[in-house]
Amino acid sequence: MEKPDFTGLKALFMNCTLKKSPRQSNTEGLMRVAMHIMKKNNIEVDYIRLVDHDVAFGMGKDMTEKGWDKDDWPALSKKVMDADILVIGTPIWEGDRSSVSKLLTERLDAMSGELNDKGQSIYYGKTGGCLVTGNEDGYQQCVRNILFSLERLGFTNPPQAGTGWVGAAGPGASYMDEEGGGKDSDFTQSTTTFMTWNLMHMAKLLKANGGFPAYGNQPEKWKEGKNFDHPNKP
Fold first, then answer.
1. Per the CB 3.0–4.6 Å rule, which of 70, 100, 115, 182 could disulfide with 175?
2. Is-above-0.85 flag for pTM?
């Protein structure tokens, strides 16, 4: 089988660690496995650690219009829109994803009402995935929540769209610690590899076909009276 060519695709990795740079982020450590694979396949990769930026809380495109002194989200959102693939990374805190990752999906949600040139949500045609690290239970909870957030906004999640590493419960070694074994975990490294390739395959399929088909999912057409074969809508 011939190896696919992914030239021309762009990926954005957004790390929702609570640690500002240059502190070591275990989530970044795992993200860089996926980033390496994508770069090796000619995908343009960008990386953002969200806490290094002043991103305001709220449900607006630019929260300076709602009283905040500063908001870096408008510039960051342009990077989201330029990317074909968005990968969200988060540590596990109290059995769930970080507050920073929740902030990110809230700001993504604030833009979901905008439409692309086909009349769909602007995120249609983009591919989404996630990576999780921690030393307590909650891996599947985090993956489920993030992937649901992405797909309901319009991102397409391929099979095996999430991966992660969880060490022993309670205080202990993290992913980047040699004694933790995360970098040697076959489960983590295989699922990270499969996720990365599935994200690339899905993004390539969507781009080659001009995005996601635009029949039956256009809000404005529905408001105009198009029933898309719904049995109870005239």
1. 182
2. yes
Rg from Cα positions in the chain = 19
Distance between the two ends of the chain, CA-based, in angstroms?
Answer: 49
Q: Are 128 and 155 in contact (CB under 8 A)?
A: yes
Is 39 in contact with 31 (CB distance < 8 Å)? Answer: no
**In 83-165, alpha helices (H):** 99-110, 139-153
List pLDDT tens digits, range 16-35: 999 999 999 999 999 999 99
Token code pair at residue 96 = 């769930």
CB contact burial 210-234 (16+ within 10 A = b; e otherwise): ebbebeebbeeeeeeeeeeeeeeee
Is 56 in contact with 45 (CB distance < 8 Å)? no
Residue 79 DSSP SS3: helix
Sequence letter at residue 136? E
Single-letter residue type at 225: G
Residue 36's pLDDT is: 98
Q: pLDDT digit string (tens) for 185-224? A: 899 999 999 999 999 999 999 999 999 999 999 999 989 9
Measured over the CA atoms of residue 82, residue 85, residue 89 and residue 95, the dihedral's sign is positive
Residue 167 token pair: 């060490």
HSE of 29, CA atoms in CB hemisphere, 13 A: 20
User: Can you point out the beta strands (E) in 113-184?
Assistant: 127-134, 162-166
| CA–CA separation, 46 and 114 (whole Å) | 24
